[in-house]
Specification:
single chain; 5 strands; 14% strand; Ubiquitin-like (UB roll); binds FE2/S2 (inorganic) cluster; DNA polymerase, domain 1; 35% helix; five-stranded mixed beta sheet; 2 domains; alpha+beta
Length: 173
């Protein structure tokens, strides 16, 4: 059985937004620091660093997870997705991002990456959420700016667009 030694850097292999990646991390290094400082994924934000604010939420092996509660060495062999994967191209927003922009669902944007990643996973498993379900999900995220209402509106609108309901409404009009 391999042992992790404090102060020693250990190899970590994983996929990041669909691409194979490798790095090295000391056993105590947080995944947030690894992503931001070694992988260059600065879209993952760091707020409380103890699992409360949700700003650091990413997708690990298909599930939303707090990167600040995960050690970098734990992701060896995992598939990671960060907020950078939501845009289909450098000059185009993804459905969720565009809905947030339309609905003014962000102000300072500090909370936004984490909320987008939680919603991304949630809407894949719950394509027809109601407002209560979105509000329940948002209890895991702190936003000091928006009052949450525009975030709820954006999430419901994005869900409808993902289901194809919005394009149907436009063609019915
Ligand atoms: S920084 Fe991870 S939950 Fe706040
Ligand atoms: S937009 Fe500022 S904390 Fe949410």
């Amino acid at each position: 059985m391999s042992r992790l030694q404090a102060g020693r850097r250990h190899p970590v292999h994983f996929t990041l937004n669909g691409r194979p990646c490798a790095g090295e991390a000391e056993p105590r290094m947080l995944l947030t620091d690894f992503l931001r400082h070694q992988a260059g994924m600065t879209g993952t934000h760091v707020g409380c660093e103890h699992g409360v604010c949700g700003a650091c939420t990413i997708d690990i092996d298909g599930k939303p997870a707090r990167a600040c509660l995960t050690l970098a060495v734990q992701i060896d062999g995992s598939a990671l997705r960060t907020v950078e994967c939501l845009a289909p191209a450098a000059d185009r927003l993804g459905i969720l991002q565009a809905a947030f922009k339309r609905n003014h669902a962000l102000q300072c944007g500090f909370c936004t990456a984490g909320i987008l990643m939680s919603l991304d996973g949630f809407l894949r498993e719950n394509p027809r959420p109601d407002e209560a379900a979105i509000r329940d999900l948002l209890t895991g995220h702190l936003c000091r700016c928006t009052g949450y209402t525009p975030i709820v509106r954006a999430a419901l609108e994005a869900a409808a667009e993902m289901r194809g309901d919005l394009s149907k409404e436009k063609s019915d009009a």
